[in-house]
Amino acid sequence: MSESRPDGGTETRHVRFDATRPARKQLRSVADFAVREYRLAVRSNWASGLALLFAVLSVGVVVFGRSSLGADGVRAVVLSVAELSVYLVPLAALAFGYGAIVEPRQRGSLDLLLALPVPRWVVAVGIYLGRAAALASALVVGFGAGGLALFRFGGGAGWGTYLALVAAAVGAGAAFLAIGLVVSTLAREKSHALGGVLLAWVWFVLIFDLLALGAVVGFDLPTPALVALLCANPATLFRLLVLSVAGSVSGGFGAVLASVPLDTASLAAALVAWIVVPVAASAALLGRR
Amino acid sequence: MIEIDNAVKRYGSVTALDGVSLSVPRGALFGLVGTNGAGKTTLFRLLVGHERPDEGTVRVAGRDPAASTAVRRAVGYLPEHAAFAPAMTGREVVRFHARQRDVARAHRRERVDDVLRTVGLGDAADRRVGGYSNGMNRRLGLATLLVGAPDVLLLDEPTASLDPEGVETFHRLVERVHERTNVTVLVTSHVLSEVERLCDRVAVLDEGRLVEAGPVDELGGEEAIIRFTPGSDVTPDDVTAFVDARPDVGLARATGDRYALSVPESAAFDRLAALQDALDVERFEVDRTGLREAFDRLVGADSADADGGDAGEQTVADGGADDGGVADV
Question: What are the domain boundaries of chain A?
Fold first, then answer.
């Protein structure tokens, strides 16, 4: 990455592989940062707190819906968990991600980390991967408890759908964590980052669907525009992924979602893009600071 | 070891460094003093490669620090407000830094233990950092640098917020490390007496410009200071009259009932005798001009010295007006 300097020249920033440090060592450093961050997340009880939250949520839905468990009942339970997850997973991921960069910066540990002989992108990516692993663990353990309850009350029915829900939740969580990372990199203070992620949650989870539904109803959007609109929100992609696996249509915007010609792989790829782009942006931003 | 040639750094309309040229030889214990915003931290950021100069060049061990991360292997930078994740233990922190600084796996454990013992954290190594005192945190910071056996240590206000015992411990530690390894140390401090004690060379920055650099004991120039406490019947006007009658005597400081006069070093005892003849002097001391006086003369600001007994004195540099500013040097 180059940018203009006052003297008219250009300067190269550190957002690149460092030729003086072998790629293997840089990747090892990414792993070191990730392990460090994962350990910190576990010790700070963030991971166990999130696991407990999702366990209570998923087990609660299964227990309350156990009277109707059969093939269709399992699908209904999975969709109920998914509906709740659409609100809670992004909120948990954003809350977990907003302090990733700004917190060590305010504490004074980021300057020390950036003074290490590693490129800055290593710091950003390592921190992200560590937190993503902690979040994924929490989601798997939490929803795993719901899965066990489902097995206890519903036998083996609907396990594939439930696993797909967990995988989609992990993907959506990773995407919203990446958004939190960008906000954290941009923010000068932790309180600003918190405000930023709350705004992001309100936008992606509450407002976007209303506006999108308005656009669909008000304008006869061509299919490519509709696809672009739906891919512009990782929460919508999460919902679409669950619907594509569960093969069910809920009312309102759900009917619109179900009519979109996107297969599961395309939806997953779009969700991956929501992870890669923000993390890359965060690495670039950290390199410029 | 460090060569800075005409370095200029601007942030928008603010010029943080304005044509600074400085050479720090290998093995020097070099102090960097200046008022708040003088450009000390910016200079460190150039040296560690966090920033590039807009003009001029910066070289550490012959290389451009911003060109790659390679220079950072040779440089240990301890920022002013460095802190650590409270949930990690001291040993984990140092081990992590050892890995990033490419300490060979075969020697890593031994090296980490050795460094922790060196900074006096051997017994606290397995405690979480959140329970460390300020002094322990600073020593842990030093350990994270030392574990990579750097050629250059950049210590930005390393003893800020430490109690006197912590300051003393840190000083002894830096001196011992320097003695053992001959590492080049660059230290900024707001405590002039700290720089005076710790460093053999010093540079004074003012508003982004380098105004003086050289051996600490030569910075004071050819002047001496007579500090005295007059008898109770001596008024400030009497002291002023004494100074005004002698062109080579200046009123350097006046605080309550204490005064400091700057005089030519060669005539210091003659002027002291004249002072005792003219005024009732209860107590006095004569000293070569120190870094404090040199700083006041160069920067024209009052300096706050945490461990000096004359903190808060009013500066009347060269008999001129007091600008009233408190220097964060």
Answer: 23-288
